[in-house]
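Quarterly update from the structural biology core.
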Amino acid sequence: MRLPAVLLAICLIVAACTTEVEVSGIEPQDPVLVELGAELYSSNCAGCHGQDLRGTEQGPSHLSEVYEPAHHGDGAFLAAVSRGSPQHHWNFGPMPPVPGLSAEDVEAIVAFVREQQRLEGFEEYPPE
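Predicted structure, tokenized:
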């Protein structure tokens, strides 16, 4: 009878010692891609979507539950960047294409966004 209690205690201790908090169910991203993506996001996306990904007067928050992978998958980011996106979900108007970014650049940006979503969690939609 003691063995299950000991195993439970060990599991609880290991869980308590974990340094990264994961609140979204998203898998950890490649740190190299995340670092590159952070730079690309800052110079190409943050002007509208916010340096902290929480949006601006010009674009929505990428931490909104609208951008959960099950609703807007990684390919939706590539499509929006390369072709633009019509207005939907938000009242910011259509998103224009973002010139000068390759598919690999967008992959890095998505890795950065997903890592932030993983660590920060998601905001409710519609925002209050």
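The first helix runs from residue 2 to 17.
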